[in-house]
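User: Last request for today: this protein with L263DTV3, please.
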Amino acid sequence: MSISSPDTCISHNNNNLPNLSNKSNGMRGNKYNCNNSGTPRTRLERLLRERELRKFNKSLNDGETELLNNDSFSPDSFEAFSWFNDEESLETISANRNSTDGCERQDSRASRERLLVVANRLPVSAVRRGVDSWHLEISVGGLVSALLGVKEFETRWIGWAGVNVPDEIGQRALIKALAEKRCIPVFLDEEIVHQYYNGYCNNILWPLFHYLGLPQEDRLATTRSFQSQFDAYKKANQMFAEVVKEHYVEGDVVWCHDYHLMFLPKCLKERNRKMKVGWFLHTPFPSSEIHRTLPSRLELLRSVLAADLVGFHTYDYARHFVSACTRILGLEGTPEGVEDQGRLTRVAAFPIGIDSDRFIRALELPQVQDHMKELKERFAGRKVMLGVDRLDMIKGIPQKILAFEKFLEENPNWRDKVVLLQIAVPTRTDVPEYQKLTSQVHEIVGRINGRFGTLTAVPIHHLDRSLDFHALCALYAVTDVALVTSLRDGMNLVSYEFVACQASKKGVLILSEFAGAAQSLGAGAILVNPWNVTEVASSIGYALNMPADEREKRHHHNFVHVTTHTSQEWAATFVSELNDTIVEAQLRTRQIPPPLPIEVAVDRYAKSNNRLLILGFNATLTEPVDTLGRKGSQIKEMEPKLRPDLQEPLRKLCDDPKTTIVVLSGSDRSVLDDNFGDYSMWLAAENGMFLRATKGDWMTTMPENLNMEWVDSVKHVFEYFTERTPRSHFELRETSLIWNYKYADVEFGRLQARDLLQHLWTGPISNASLDVVQGSRSIEVRSVGVTKGAAIDRILGEIVHNKGMKEPIDYVLCIGHFLAKDEDIYTFFEPELPSEVPAPVRSHVTPPVRTSVSKLSTSRSLSREDRLKKHRPMPTIERSKSYHVNTDVFQSRVVDRMSLQEGSSVLDLQGDNYFSCSVARKRSNARYLLGSSDDAVKLLTELTNSWINGMNTDGSTMEGN
Ligand SMILES: O=P(O)(O)OC[C@H]1O[C@H](O[C@H]2O[C@H](CO)[C@@H](O)[C@H](O)[C@H]2O)[C@H](O)[C@@H](O)[C@@H]1O
Ligand SMILES: O=c1ccn([C@@H]2O[C@H](COP(=O)(O)OP(=O)(O)O)[C@@H](O)[C@H]2O)c(=O)[nH]1
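Assistant: Here's the final one, the structure of the complex with L263DTV3:
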């Protein structure tokens, strides 16, 4: 048994690898990751090599970067930002270089790759101090902290400065102030911010992506309707795209961030297809069942898919995204990502990290040491528990406090020995849900402090404010137990920062299993379900009482992770994979046939005298099928039907005496009869095993000894899988069986198909002489050797004889959405090249040049003996209709098909008069591609028009063929 897969192997052209920096030259072909030739061939080889080069360059650059960081330090402009103190400056994340965006200075890092980071929020928020004067404050949030750690690239940051600037003077002054920090503002007015940021982003997407569901649509308030908010969202994304366009320099990597900018990849690619675009989501991506509740679910997914690379914090989120694309968009999910018409969007997990060195170094600073001393004195004799969160419902702050209350309730001996410090940074304060949360938390804290507090001490210190970097580091360092109880959290960097600051104390981390960080710090932390208040309360007890050696082991595990999986590594890996994705895409594109030059095909058609059109049926002459199967209950109605808009052109074309049309399909005879019975053409059913001129009877060419004993066993297997796979069905044809799961749940269908194949491969029929042909959503079993390419030989012989052809066929157009196995029909008409001549390289610019075919090679046709086989009765699998079958005629005519009566050749495809064309299958051996059956309609209509116009001018008559 042979199994053929629809996938085509991709060959790699090593000349197209990205240029590596000079430093890399000495490292080609090293022992770690290259093949013998020293040039990486596979994606993994390339990525491993890139990683090695990064490490190598980093070691060379480290000394230099230190110097540059100090050199670029500009404390004056950031005196108010504790995060940008003597060693922390935005300058350190971006190189200085003259460029189009007004960022001046040049240094030795100018050759670094330019990275445009596009995020809703800039790392600084602007506060207006006068008509043309601005004060910049560092923005709070994990996205900003992580990206501030990215130093490897020459970075520009494009985003919203968190403020409405309606006047030009203010805008100009802000642009200037931000340019010093390598930041470029996007100006959003109040109304847009309200609808886009407060509305669509934070009231709809944010809760939905964190499994909190969609809010009720308020019909009375237009500002709270999905549609108006989504419109504003799209508009805001367009505005970001405009700014990117303005600052983009060819070769830049554009990295879009987060749920605010899901529409951006599409906007960017529409403006410039060549732009390298990555998109990273900082929140969870929910199960497809959650995403499908979103009214704009399709548009958002499609827009994100326009990116070259899509990244998530965890494999789970990536899996959910791929699953949403397969289930909601009906696209193909592969281990690499999501495939749509041969174009791949790579999807992968890139867990973010922090700049751990920055925290470790900060602990040595005198001001941090002072802070730590103060805190230790303040809380002497008490264990310190810490929570640091934006005041957001996803952070589970009420749940955390209630668990702490339960702990105090159950452990009276701890009441005066432990304190919970909760830093709750105000965030998104214009959104009503956040306002409600603030009051709720205040109320709970007040109640608990009232219950367990004394005149001198309270158990909970709750701060509605942010801390500066040094205060935060000091707090992390003196903490005994950190408590992270997010109900859902993309990653949660607070947990990483805590670990980085605990080298000496080795405190315990209690971490929600619903934070992305649980996947990386799970082994060292105590994982909890934040909804289970009892579990969290007992974990607090366990953590406070944990023996030193266990704390040490747990801490060590986490510390190693946090210090190796840094934000620098995260960004470098993402950008490196993005670059590689582009290389991979170029290699793929080279495999895709160029679009059919319809004008040329029509022109050649008009100029030839004896034309042959071979047309596939399904997905070529039929309407595209709704692959999602939402109309699955009407499967019967979805049996293939000729497109209504093709009926007229096809009928006219059939009347052209110089044209022979053959519909060659896998479908059975009844389907072709129903659709084409009253056209004047040839029908070849079941991949050419049956043939009929519509004026005559069906003939068969099935070999006499065709073994069909396997049919019952395969039918039995197909029945079994059909019963167990809702909305799948199978078709019993006379020479093959097809199990089709295109209307079934995609993932389940694929799993079932895998099982089915496994069974066919290894089960009782594994030794039968069968071909198992995999379609994208089907499995077909046929006798060995049954293909369209094998059949065309006999079909052609019969037609030539039947029509008494005197002139050779001088034009062939063969179009279809054929399975890989049947693509041998395309090669059938190709001239045979001398073996020493390399295969022609596919080009997108010039149509392929072909030699004229003077004679069909016998090597591609059946042997004389085969063709002379005696006729035999039709095998019966199951006959729903009885046909008159004249096998004798079909078989014997094949003999003469090699030459015309006068002895000249059947085919004379002078010049490029052969057009093989795949419809909507980009991985194809055809010479050309038509995007969809719509294009097939266009082509056939133009051929018809060309004939009718030609006929009118030369006055020829219309005769049937
Ligand atoms: O910009 P804001 O609306 O004030 O919100 C702050 C940020 O919150 C979210 O952060 C997420 O990113 C972190 C880093 O990847 C991750 O650890 C955390 O779990 C996420 O919640 C949001 O995604 C950012 O865009 C905001 O800037
Ligand atoms: O007073 C504070 C409290 C927190 N953070 C920072 O805010 C970020 C929070 O990131 P996380 O990933 O934990 O959650 P997010 O707020 O992004 O959802 C961390 O880097 C904190 O250091 C801060 O800058 N000041």
